[in-house]
From TrEMBL:
Record domain Poly A polymerase head: where: 29-149
Keywords assigned: Magnesium, Metal-binding, Nucleotide-binding, Nucleotidyltransferase, RNA-binding, Transferase, tRNA processing
GO biological process entries: tRNA processing
Similarity comment: family membership: Belongs to the tRNA nucleotidyltransferase/poly(A) polymerase family.
Record SUPFAM superfamilies: Nucleotidyltransferase (SSF81301), Poly A polymerase C-terminal region-like (SSF81891)
Official protein name in the record: Poly(A) polymerase
GO molecular function annotation: metal ion binding; nucleotide binding; nucleotidyltransferase activity; tRNA binding
PANTHER family found in the cross-reference section: CCA TRNA NUCLEOTIDYLTRANSFERASE 1, MITOCHONDRIAL
Record has Magnesium as a keyword: yes
Cofactor(s) required for function per UniProt: Mg(2+)
UniProt cross-references to Pfam families, sorted A to Z: PolyA_pol, PolyA_pol_RNAbd
Domain tRNA nucleotidyltransferase/poly(A) polymerase RNA and SrmB- binding intervals: 184-239
């Protein structure tokens, strides 16, 4: 079997492969680019595995007129930039000793050793520069079956890096078959290794959770996380009940997936801190968690928060309260977003100032909103 795609035949990528193979080394595409090519999904990052040592990769890249960047030299990874396109070239490796995220690795000379140290069988697929597929661990059958399966012993793979617990659910959300559930052996290993999640940095956990929640329908995977105790370990107090209704409402309204909207539906304590969200992300999450509990109608939401945040608030409110969306929601939001309050502070001066001025403006604004934005400046004054 061969994989195809513009990315694999592109001259910059083939130049990186030729740089290695021309010197007698192997050059094999690996991981996500191969997996996505098999599925017919878009390919982003291009990873290449090789038996050439990192120093040799740097030497060969320089001689070929390409730019080598030692982005992960201690782990055997050199980013080779070819015509502005980065290619992560990593020497075959094998684990010698593992303890969480920090593993002692040694370079290997054969592909099977490199394959066995990866996380899931669907990520241990390789392809030659001409696209010929190499499947050393049966990952192709798992990929076709949409089965996310750890390589060999799931518990051992997890202890090598506890983030793989979250990756297990994330990959199921993106590539798994929700109808068949999660791999039972992998799920059991996740449940029995929960304590390891506490050793992970909040940035890594937050990044993984947002990637999971960006999947087309993460609800079955997050429900499995909750059942296994993983969701509580990451986000104490979170609950998945509103997520499936929210995804359904998104589909009904042709609303694109948005991780923070879905994260807001889960609730939980200290979420922004536990996931180390950026300040803009934390502010938006706070807005999305606070507003659905209020009674502000669509026109006012559009006026105060714009159409995007306003729509997210209404979607969350409907999901949390299990109520239908108003058919004219989008029109009402747009009408509110386009409205401009016709009274300025200067219109009330010099008769009013300070807190009294602010109170009067707020009162007039409420009257104007209640009128459906119909009262004019003259009416209000």
């Amino acid at each position: 079997m061969k994989i195809t795609g513009d990315w694999i035949t592109a001259r910059p990528t083939q130049s990186v492969c030729a740089m290695l193979t021309g010197a007698g080394h192997q050059a094999l595409f690996v991981g996500g680019c191969v997996r996505n090519a098999v599925l017919g999904a878009p390919v982003g990052d291009i990873d290449i595995a090789t038996d050439a040592r990192p120093e040799r990769v740097i030497e060969l890249a320089g001689a070929a007129g390409l730019k080598p960047v030692p982005t992960g030299l201690e782990h055997g990874t050199i980013t080779v930039v070819s015509d502005h396109i980065p290619h992560e070239v990593t020497t075959f490796r094998k684990d010698v000793q593992t303890f969480g995220r920090h593993a002692v690795v040694a370079f290997a000379d054969d592909l099977p050793a490199d394959a066995r140290r990866r996380d899931f069988t669907m990520n241990a697929l390789y392809a030659q520069p001409d696209g010929t597929l190499i499947d050393p661990l049966g990952g192709l059958d798992d990929l076709h079956a949409r089965r996310v399966r750890f390589i060999e012993d799931p518990a051992q793979r997890i202890r090598e890096d506890y983030l793989r617990i979250l990756r297990f659910f994330r990959f199921h959300a993106w590539y798994g078959d929700a109808g068949n559930g999660l791999d039972a052996e992998g799920l059991a290993a996740c449940a029995t290794n929960l304590d390891g999640l506490a050793t992970l940095s909040r940035e890594r956990v937050g990044g993984e959770m947002l990637k999971l929640l960006d999947a087309p329908d993460p609800a079955p995977s997050v429900a499995a996380m909750q059942a296994a105790g993983v969701l509580h370990a990451v986000l104490p107090g979170a609950d998945v009940r509103a997520l499936a209704p929210l995804v359904h409402l998104e589909s009904e309204t042709n609303t694109a997936p948005e991780p923070l909207r879905r994260l807001a539906s889960l609730g939980g304590r200290d979420v922004a801190d536990r996931l180390r969200l950026s300040k803009p992300q934390a502010r938006r999450l706070a807005l999305l968690r606070e507003m659905p509990t209020g009674t502000m109608l669509a026109p006012e939401l559009g006026y105060r928060h714009g159409t995007t945040d306003g729509a997210d608030i209404l979607l969350l409110r409907a999901a949390l309260l299990e109520t239908p969306l108003a058919p004219d929601m989008q029109d009402d939001l747009a009408r509110g977003a386009a409205a401009r309050f016709p009274v300025a502070a200067a219109d009330l001066m010099p008769g009013l100032s300070g807190p009294a001025l602010g109170q009067r403006l707020a009162d007039l604004e409420r009257r104007w909103i209640a009128s459906g934005f119909s009262l004019t400046r003259e009416d209000l004054l």
